[in-house]
Specification:
Elements: H1 11-21, H2 39-54, E1 58-61, E2 67-71, E3 81-85, H3 99-115, E4 123-127, H4 141-146, H5 152-156, H6 166-173, E5 188-194, H7 199-203, E6 207-224, H8 241-258, E7 265-274, E8 284-292, H9 296-316, E9 320-331, H10 336-348, E10 353-358, H11 363-367, E11 373-378, H12 398-412
Parallel strand pairs: 3-4, 3-5, 5-11, 6-10
Antiparallel strand pairs: 1-2, 2-4, 6-8, 6-9, 6-11, 7-8
Helix pairs in contact: 1-3, 8-9, 10-12
Length: 414
């Protein structure tokens, strides 16, 4: 057997790896709760490493726990091609979000092994640590550190919702690697992902060619007030940080409705407070929110409205506000040549495709800051994700998996 234009991935084998993954970190019925750096995450990492070593790959772990599984090429002096995503999930996560992208890279390598084909360039499958941000905030932290957005020490000092420090949890599960968390020269990065939206499924399309992402602006903020008794403290003397955070998040939600006609979206995704107990006002609160819109100018306007609402909400509650972290991602970030190559493969292979933009954050957004990057979307039923009801069938991956295979090999053999 040799690699040819007719070569196809083994869909049954790919599906079996997804099914095995779905047995590790089981959450609500049908779903997963495999939060990063937990015992279940360790078990999944161990399984992935075992699969990679069985496929003849050399495995390394970097300083923030990301796993790199390398297949040498015929000319190892050339920069490698990376194929990646993440194996961690949301607390009420599905079985495919991120996971399909990592295991697609594994199936690609297995297919090349079957064909006895060695690409000119090396290939590297990557599992990025903490893409979801469900236990440690912010999300996509490891890929961000890889491209220099975050310092490794800063990542190590992140504190989980349940208390432990990131660096300590890396050591506890045995994935505090020694590979430097630094992006050297990379020829290209590919990421296959379920759409996480309803468009492909609603239109009956087999695959989406991702042309870019919705521009998105987000903030993690802190409100400071003062503890006081809820009974005798007059309203005009209250400094309730919980109320400041709640006012801000509802104001952000209103921004989303103001721009909803143009497909604008605003999300208040997190509010924590201390002491957060009956009978006492909270003196600190932390909140996370973001806005996004397909038009970059409108997205900036929404972001500015979010910023102004922050300080107005704090003042109304007699509190102060501080922006602890701020981010922007999305826009026209993916490499035109790679995108065109994926589209050409879809046409050549006779799949029903469409151009589409990503509306969620992905590790690919950070990699696009460093090297040519592209994404492929596969359909999911009803666009339901970050939910245990997330659903795909094997045939949903037929087009994306084979387009990825041929797009990567075409690039890697240059």
């Amino acid at each position: 057997m040799t690699f040819s234009p007719e070569t196809r991935a083994d869909l049954g084998r790919f599906w079996s790896t997804l099914e095995r993954s779905a047995e590790i970190g089981v959450g609500r019925p049908g779903g997963l709760a495999r939060l990063t750096l937990t015992d279940d995450d360790r078990l999944m990492r161990d399984q992935f490493v075992q699969w990679c070593e069985a496929a003849g790959l050399t495995v390394e772990v970097d300083e923030v726990g990301s796993i790199f599984a390398r297949r040498d090429g015929t000319d190892n002096s050339l920069p490698p091609i990376l194929i990646g995503s993440h194996l961690d999930t949301q607390i009420n996560g599905g079985r495919f979000d991120g996971i399909a992208g990592v295991l697609a890279g594994l199936e690609l390598v297995r297919c090349l092994n079957d064909a006895g084909h060695v690409t000119r360039r090396p290939l590297v499958i990557v599992n990025w640590t903490n893409e979801e941000g469900a236990r440690f905030s912010p999300p996509m932290v490891a890929s961000g550190a890889f491209v220099g957005k975050y310092a490794v020490d800063w990542v190590h000092d992140l504190i989980a919702d349940d208390g432990p420090r990131f660096g300590d949890e890396l050591a506890r599960i045995g994935y505090n690697g020694t590979r430097p968390c630094k992006a050297d020269e990379i020829d290209a990065y590919f990421e296959l992902h379920i759409e996480q939206g309803p468009i492909l499924d609603a239109e009956g399309r087999q695959v989406g060619v991702v042309t870019g992402g919705y521009p998105s602006h987000g903030m993690r903020v802190r409100f400071d007030g003062q503890t006081a008794h809820t009974g005798p403290t007059p309203m005009d003397l209250r400094h309730n940080a919980l109320i400041a955070g709640a006012r801000w998040l509802t104001a952000v939600d209103d921004i989303g409705w103001d721009f909803a006609v143009g497909d604008g979206k605003a999300t208040g995704s997190r509010l924590t407070a201390w002491p957060n107990k009956p009978g006492i006002l909270s003196d600190t609160a932390q909140a996370v929110a973001d806005v996004r819109h397909p038009d970059p100018v409108t997205a900036r306007v929404m972001g500015e409205k979010m910023r102004r609402a922050l300080f107005a909400s704090a003042a109304m509650a007699g509190c102060t506000a501080e922006i602890e972290d701020e981010w922007f991602w999305g826009g026209d970030i993916f490499d035109r040549a790679l995108v065109d190559g994926i589209r050409d493969q879809a046409i050549r292979m006779g799949f029903d495709w469409r151009d589409i933009r990503s509306q969620a954050g992905h590790d690919a957004y950070h990699l696009a800051m460093h090297c040519p990057t592209a994404m492929i979307f596969t359909p999911c039923k009803g666009g339901i994700t970050h939910n245990n009801a997330e659903s795909c069938e094997p045939e949903d991956f037929l087009a994306g998996l084979n387009i990825l295979l041929h797009a990567v090999v075409t690039r890697a053999d240059r």
